[in-house]
Amino acid sequence: MAIATINPATGQTVREFDSLTEAQVDEALDRAVRGFADYRTTSFEQRATWLRATADLLEAEADDVAAMMTEEMGKTLASAKAETLKCAKGFRYYADHGAEMLADEPADAEAVGASRAYMRYQPLGVVLAVMPWNFPLWQAVRFAAPALMAGNVGILKHASNVPQSALYLEDVLRRAGFPEGCFQTLLIGSSMVESILRDPRVAAATLTGSEPAGRSVAAIAGDEVKHTVLELGGSDPYIVMPSADIPRAAKTAVTARVQNNGQSCIAAKRFIVHTDAYDEFVDAFTAGFRSLVVGDPTEEATDVGPLATEQGRTDLEELVDDAVGKGAKVLIGGSRVDRPGWFYEPTILADITEEMEIYSAEAFGPVAALYRVENIDDAIAIANDTTFGLGGNAWTTDAAEQEQFIDRIESGQVFINGMTTSYPELGFGGIKRSGYGRELTSHGIHEFCNIKTVWIA
Ligand code: NAP
Question: Does the keyword Oxidoreductase apply (predicted)?
Fold first, then answer.
């Protein structure tokens, strides 16, 4: 895959970049090791100062950063700006709370026959981050902010279609004061990931992306016995029960499906609706889709921009065509948009059956799959009938039902009467083939720490 910015709204190549050579990667790894030797000795206070300076720069530069992201992957300008400001918040969160999260954790010294015993959180070293294009900054910041606060140094291999966002992150961290070697962007293709991961200078890796990419990185890391965090795909259920506020559930469902032009791992993708709420929900949901403005992502009125890549649109189109060919009913949309760029109509499909690929695959675009169920057990059965386990949404005002959804949905997170969103204050991650490990909160910072037991007689 070429390393290039190709504007998805026009299909035009804006800028191309050469991949680094193996020798340049080797130099970068040396720089990272040298950087780590000094950086690991810096104080929490110093790291927090640099994190806050990064946040300040992001806030000051948010408009330009947003324009760059929109040009690279087609998200609307408003959502790109919101993402930039969220990144600033993420940096501040770890600046404010990192020291407390990394403080020595006392153990019961008496129980273990010591005068003093505790756990110390120490950095692992050079961590490789392989990241996707859908949230070009936020995905990388979710790794960078906690990893840097903990004293690690980062090597970023970003998706090949967001090279400018990738370079910006390295640049902004340097301008904020992080010393050389603390965070480097390597413009390389995915074929170079294996040798970097096997390199003894690299201690651990995190990958956010598709299941095949995750499987490949996990297999190599397993062979090298290196720690990994995997944040992979999702096909989140969005369950609506009769007691719910149906108009609000339908309005939120529209956002939950089409946010980021439908390309979010935690987007609601399967809408599982109780038969007593079905007609009201589907009418309102379809009306919401009908009112969406699809178009140029730089225009303020636009709700849904293009898919980020031509291949992404082809994959989505194939999923819809397969379902329709096997009897799915198109309530709205169902086709690509006839204009330059990689636009696809916001689409709702009903009458989904197990034979259709969309039943089990992740629809990475603005396509909703609808299911009608008779009761809560059927709703949960369909929700869990997936290899994914990232997020889950359920709408009901019945406390007993809420508890059932919280307890029985197989996922890393459950949102009741709302849509799944990431916050620094909440843990983020999945189970099953959505991956393992957690990002954000103290869990995210501890992923890249050696949790060292200390016992003193
Ligand atoms: P992708 O094709 O897996 O790419 C993600 C990253 O992995 C890119 O940097 C890519 O590099 C690299 N890569 C691809 N194949 C690789 C391999 N065999 N070995 C090493 N690296 C490899 O995924 P995507 O299409 O960019 O992103 C969409 C997927 O990410 C969806 O499934 C989505 O649900 C998932 N996602 C998950 C989360 C989460 O937090 N759980 C968040 C966002 C997205 P190149 O670009 O050079 O190919």
Answer: yes
- Tell me, using a 6 A CB cutoff, whether residue 233 lines ligand 1: yes
Asked if residue 311 has its Cβ within 6 Å of ligand 1, the reply is no
Q: Pick from 83, 138, 265, 266 the residue to mutate for probing ligand 1's pocket: most ligand atoms within 8 Å of its CB.
A: 265
Please answer whether residues 236 and 391 qualify as being in contact, where contact means their C-beta atoms are separated by less than 8 angstroms: yes
27 and 115, same domain (yes or no): yes
CA–CA dist 81, 131 (Å, integer): 19
Residues 139 and 252 in one domain: no
Please count the CA atoms within 13 angstroms of the CA of 251 that sit on its side-chain side. Answer: 5
Rg, C-alpha atoms of the chain: 23
In a domain, residue 286? The reply is yes
Would you say the CB of residue 362 lies under 6 angstroms from ligand 1? yes
Instruction: Examine the domain organization and report whether 157 and 248 are in the same domain.
Output: no
Q: Is residue 421 part of a domain?
A: no
Is the same domain home to 56 and 105?
yes
Q: What is the CATH number of the domain that holds 339?
A: 3.40.309.10
Residues above pLDDT 90, as percent of the chain: 100
Verify that 334 and 188 share a domain, yes or no: no
Q: Is the pLDDT of residue 386 over 90?
A: yes
- Residue whose CA is closest, atom 18 of ligand 1? 213
Token pair, residue 338, equals: 């006839």
Which tens digit of pLDDT belongs to each residue from 204-262? 999 999 999 999 999 999 999 999 999 999 999 999 999 999 999 999 999 999 999 99
Report if residue 201 sits inside a domain: yes
**Is residue 1 predicted with pLDDT exceeding 90?**
no
Output the domain CATH number for residue 447. 3.40.605.10
Distance 4 CA to ligand 1 centre (A): 16
Sign of CA dihedral 442, 443, 448, 449: positive
Question: Are 173 and 35 contacting, i.e. CB atoms less than 8 angstroms apart?
Answer: no
Please determine, for residue 268, whether its predicted confidence score (pLDDT) is greater than 90.
yes
Q: Phi then psi for 33, rounded to 5 degrees? A: -65, -45
Cβ-proximal residues to 378 (8 Å cutoff; 6+ apart), any chain: none
How far, in Å, is the centroid of ligand 1 from the Cα of 454?
38
Residue with the smallest CA separation from ligand 1 atom 30 is 209
Structural domain of residue 383, as residue ranges? Answer: 236-416
The tens digit of pLDDT for each residue in 107-122 reads: 999 999 999 999 999 9
Distance 139 CA to ligand 1 centre (A): 11
Annotated catalytic residues are 231, 265
Cα(433) to centroid of ligand 1, in Å? Answer: 14
CA 232 to ligand 1 center in whole angstroms: 8
Each residue's pLDDT tens digit, 287-337: 999 999 999 999 999 999 999 999 999 999 999 999 999 999 999 999 999
For ligand 1, is residue 210 a contact (CB within 6 Å)?
Answer: yes
Ligand 1 atom at shortest distance from the alpha carbon of 142: 40
Distance CA 211, CA 390 (A): 12
